Amino acid sequence: MAQYRASESKREQFRRYLEKSGVLDTLTSVLVALYEEPEKPNNALDFIKLHLGAAGPEPADTEALRTELADLQQKCSELMEENKELRSRVSVYR
Questions:
Q1: Could you tell me if 46 and 55 are in contact, meaning their C-beta atoms sit under 8 angstroms apart?
Q2: What sign for the dihedral angle of Cα 68, 69, 70, 71?
Q3: Is the dihedral of CA 42, 44, 47, 49 positive or negative?
Q4: Which tens digit of pLDDT belongs to each residue from 26-49?
Q5: What percent of the chain has pLDDT over 70?
Q6: Sorted alphabetically, which InterPro entries does this protein's record hold (predicted)?
Q7: Rounded to the nearest 5 degrees, what angle is found at the Cα of 60, between the Cα atoms of 65 and 42?
Q8: In whole angstroms, what is the distance from residue 17 CA to residue 44 CA?
């Protein structure tokens, strides 16, 4: 019987923790939004992830970001080389 009370106490502590941190309110609002959705989505989990902000970027966005990253890395390398060259020129004049 003492084991049951201990686990019940832990359960209650965890519930209070979730309530205090706002998790319960957030989950409730997302589930209410799903409930009030006129046309239920095929994948409820994706709906929940999207409304919680865990969906991540779209594949097209991802590809555009990768391209931009590659371009910026190339530009950074070029600027680093230019910086190195200019520093060597300045050191010659000192």
A1: yes
A2: positive
A3: negative
A4: 999 999 999 999 999 999 998 998
A5: 88
A6: AMY1
A7: 135
A8: 26
At 63 the pLDDT is 84
Confidence of residue 82 (pLDDT cuts 50, 70, 90): very high
Q: CA dist 76 to 40, 45, 64, 72, Å?
A: 47, 40, 18, 6
Kindly give, in sequence order, each residue whose CB lies less than 8 Å from that of residue 24, ignoring residues fewer than 6 positions away. Answer: 15, 18
Cα–Cα distances in Å, from 31 out to 22, 37, 52, 61, 62?
14, 10, 11, 28, 28
Q: 47, 41 in Cβ contact below 8 A? A: yes
Are the C-beta atoms of residues 48 and 34 closer than 8 Å to each other?
Answer: yes
Q: How far, in Å, CA of 7 to CA of 15, rounded? A: 12
- Provide the residue ranges of all domains of the chain, joining segments of one domain with +: 1-56, 57-93
